[in-house]
Amino acid sequence: MNNADRTTDRSTNRTLSYPEVGATRLGPLPDGYQHLHHTNPIGRGRAVFDAAAAAVTDWRMHRGSGVGIRATAVRAEPGARVEISLGTGPLRFTAHCEVVWATYERDRTGFGYGTVTGHPECGEESFVVDIRDDGSVWFTVMAFSRPARWYTRLAGPLVPVAQKLYAKRLGHTVRRLARTDTEGNGVVQRQ
Questions:
Q1: Cis before residue 90, ω within 30 degrees of 0?
Q2: What residues contact residue 89 under an 8 Å CB cut-off, 6+ apart?
Q3: What phi and psi, each to the nearest 5 degrees, are found at residue 79?
Q4: How many angstroms separate the CA atoms of 22 and 111, rounded?
């Protein structure tokens, strides 16, 4: 797949709205943006890692945090389009993203998605679960963003605060989902 195919959705003609595609995968995060780096402990052991990784990549993390999500793929994969929504009725906020990278490794699983034209922010956000040598499991949200619409510019310093609170909420959700999925002899049970 060439770069033009990966970054353009022919049905909506939306393209990624920033040039630093993939920077949340390994860093460093680019200058000129607000940066977010938040890490939560999830638990211990391979079963917890597997459950947390599944919750992150099959969108349950988002749904479990109260976010509406529609995706063009069952689990995170490069090129998948994602529509995220909060609120209801006339107070419904919708944002579109595209998964720009995904990794499914033995000790690290996650993905990053980037904003497409029309999104209120410009940048990228990643969600990664890793298991360390001591068996501890961690969830990390890393992002870089800047306002792209008049109302996010107007919100100014409130946007990074909201993003940090959202990252914390996601971490608590991943921990809860991993615990729920591994109850009963450490066997991962899918929802």
A1: no
A2: none
A3: 95, -15
A4: 10
pTM (2 d.p.): 0.84
pLDDT by 10s per residue, the chain, length 191: 333 333 333 344 569 888 899 999 988 899 989 999 999 999 999 999 999 999 999 999 999 988 899 999 999 999 999 998 887 777 777 888 999 999 999 999 999 999 998 787 889 999 999 999 999 999 999 999 887 777 777 777 888 888 899 999 999 999 999 998 877 544 444 43
Q: How far apart are CA 78 and CA 70, in angstroms?
A: 15
Please work out, in degrees rounded to the nearest 5, the angle formed at the alpha carbon of residue 127 by the alpha carbons of 124 and 129.
Answer: 155
First to last CA, the chain: 32
